[in-house]
Structures are given as structure tokens and as C-alpha cells.
Write a structure and sequence with these properties.
The chain is an alpha/beta fold. The protein has helices at about 15-30, 55-65, 80-95, 110-115, 125-140, 180-185, 200-215, 240-245, 255-260, 265-270, 290-300, 315-335, and strands spanning about 5-10, 35, 70, 100-105, 145-150, 155-160, 170-175, 190-195, 225-235, 285, 305-310. Helix content is about 45%, strand content about 15%. It has an eight-stranded parallel β-barrel with strand order 1-2-3-4-7-8-9-11, surrounded by seven helices. Strands 5-6 form a two-stranded antiparallel sheet.
Length: about 325
């Protein structure tokens, strides 16, 4: 499978128009794909952003010509009914045939609870809702007059009148644990995770779980696209590359310090105290050869699409440097 190199459009960091211009620039600089998150709230309040991913993707289908466009990731189970997500992505696929991917996950409370006023359920419920949503969306893309009786979702003779031109939209499942990773192996076109959490998580847990899920259902593991968001801070000025990571200090918070936090102001306050540790989640480098060695372990594990997320406010500079110095080297050595 051909190596694909993507760009993570930081919706928590930039407003919709600037983010759209960056997506166009990423295409110009040689990236293969552009992925956007679907958050209602950012990880920090000060200078934070959270443009609506579905509107933004619609604009991106018209401003780009070549790159694949995807969500990393969207939760199709609380703020949205999966029938609506199916309709949205069918429309997007009609606007950019063969260039749209729906990345899905079980969600975060800070994006669902404040919007709906709901009680955040346990993982078992979140996972059950995700499983039903994937099944229902695929039926809506392929069938007419769908009646669905799930534990969490129901429809009654509903039809999508503008189905995807290709018959369906590829679904990638995001996972940080083995249960969701096995689910990706069982049913998904692709699997998504994020870097910087210790190599044993990928080599001993997540990827083996994807393989297990695939083999138990008779699927070919190699046909499931293994995608990883790479947290990279690359700049010719190493000091600047380190400084840039502070903007994303919330990512370095221990899980117990983030659980149940649904106010960006509080998350920002907690992250302020660990800004000097923010770089731990990022591959920081000022040298292309050193940087390729930092990326090598992920490629050798079999990840086929690397989506690069830079923390800098100077994204145009990052895209220029990466397009000139890193993407060609990666393609030369691993394509």
C-alpha cells in the first residue's frame, strides 16, 4: 500500500478561513490528505477556535482538487444522529468524489456534555452507540427506506436521495485502547491513533488488536489503512520548536487530570502548570535526518498514512519546510 502523508488542520488553533487557506497551501506543498477535528470546544480558551467541521469540509471540497479530506475524528453518536452524519458525508462525497473519509470515535465529554446537558455515559454505552452508528450509516449509503431498530438509534423507512457516488464513504475508527482497535479491525476501512504515547502501546496493544479483530472476521489485516497523527514540532530554530509545543500543553496532562473537565478555561488553567513538559508529546527537531529517525519507528510498525500535526502559530512556515525537506525524504526512503 502506498505511503500517504497528511496534514492535520488545527481547528482548535485557527479560525475557519485561515484554516481553509492552510489546507489549500498543504495541497500545494505536496501533502496527500488534510484531516480536521470535530470539536465544539477547543483545548484552551485563550485565542481558541472551533469551526464546524462539516461546513468547513464542504468549503474544502471546492478549494482543493487533489487531497483526501477527512475527520480525525468525529463523534456520530451524541451531538449528531448518525443519519445526519450519513447525509452530510454522502453530500461531501458527491462534491469531491473519492476524496472524503469519515473518521469516527467514541467522543470526549467536553464536546458533548456542555452542548446537550447530558450525563456522560460509561465507555460501554459510548462504544455501543458507535457500533450502531457505523452499521446504520453504511446501510443508509447503500439501501433505500431503511428501518433500523437499535438499542440507541432508530429510523423508520428513511432514504438518502443523494447517496455517495462511490456507493459508500470509507470509515476509519479512532482508538486509544484495544476494544475500539479490535472493532476497527472487524469493520473499518482504516484505523486512526495518535503518536507520543510510548511505542509499546502501538506495537503490543493497538496494532495487534486491529489484527486480531480482522482475523476473527476473516478480513485481510493488510487492507485496513493504519493511520497515525504524528505530533511534530519541526523548525530550523530548535528553541522555537520547543517553545511552540507549549501552546498544546493540555495534551501532556495525565488522563486523570483531563477526565471530566468540560470547560476550556479550566483545562487551560491546569495545563499552564506543565508547559515545560509539553514537548514530551511531540517529536521536536531542527534537523531533517534526525527527524526522519524520529519517524522511522512508526513507519517500521506498518503505519501507512502519517498525518502531521504541528503546534506552531506559523503554519505556513511549517508547511513550506515540511514540503521541501521532509516529505520528499520520506517518499524516497519508504514509498
Amino acid at each position: 500500500m502506498k505511503l500517504k502523508l497528511g496534514y492535520k488542520a488545527s481547528a482548535e488553533q485557527f479560525g475557519p478561513q485561515e484554516l481553509l487557506d492552510l489546507a489549500v497551501l498543504a495541497e500545494e506543498k505536496g501533502f496527500d490528505s488534510v484531516w480536521v477535528s470535530d470539536h465544539y470546544q477547543p483545548f484552551r480558551h485563550t485565542d481558541g477556535h472551533a469551526p464546524f467541521s462539516l461546513s468547513w469540509l464542504g468549503a474544502a471540497t471546492q478549494r482543493t482538487q487533489r487531497v483526501t479530506l477527512g475527520t480525525s475524528v468525529l463523534t456520530p453518536t451524541f451531538r449528531y444522529h448518525p443519519s445526519i452524519v450519513a447525509q452530510a458525508f454522502a453530500t461531501l462525497e458527491r462534491l469531491a468524489p473519492g476524496r472524503v473519509i469519515l473518521g469516527v470515535g467514541t467522543g470526549e465529554s467536553m464536546n458533548e456534555v456542555p452542548v446537550t446537558g447530558m450525563e456522560w455515559p460509561e465507555f460501554k454505552v459510548r462504544f455501543g452507540r458507535l457500533k450502531e452508528s457505523v452499521e446504520l450509516m453504511r446501510r443508509l449509503w447503500r439501501e433505500d427506506f431503511v428501518t433500523y431498530h437499535g438499542e440507541y438509534f432508530q429510523t423508520r423507512e428513511v432514504t438518502l436521495y443523494d447517496k455517495p457516488a462511490g456507493g459508500a464513504v470509507p470509515i476509519y475508527v479512532g482508538a486509544s485502547g484495544e476494544v475500539a482497535a479490535r472493532f476497527a479491525g472487524r469493520v473499518a476501512d482504516g484505523f486512526i491513533c495518535t503518536s507520543g504515547k510510548g511505542m509499546e502501546l502501538y506495537s503490543e496493544k493497538l496494532l495487534p488488536a486491529v489484527r486480531e479483530g480482522a482475523e476473527k472476521t476473516g478480513r485481510d489485516y493488510e487492507t485496513i489503512v493504519k493511520t497515525i497523527e504524528m505530533k511534530v514540532s519541526y523548525d530550523h530554530d530548535r528553541r522555537q520548536a520547543m517553545e511552540d509545543t507549549k501552546l498544546w500543553a493540555p495534551l501532556a496532562l495525565p488522563a486523570e487530570d483531563k477526565a471530566g473537565v468540560e470547560d476550556p478555561r479550566e483545562l487551560e488553567r491546569r495545563a499552564k502548570g506543565i508547559e515545560d513538559q509539553a514537548h514530551r508529546r511531540w517529536l521536536v527537531s531542527d534537523n531533517p535526518e534526525e527527524h526522519l529517525e524520529q519517524l522511522r519507528p512508526y513507519l517500521e510498525l506498518g503505519f501507512q498514512e502519517l498525518v502531521f500535526h504541528s503546534p506552531t502559530d506559523r503554519q505556513d512556515n511549517f508547511l513550506q519546510l515540511y514540503g521541501e525537506e521532509i516529505l520528499p525524504r520520506l517518499r524516497e526512503r519508504w514509498s
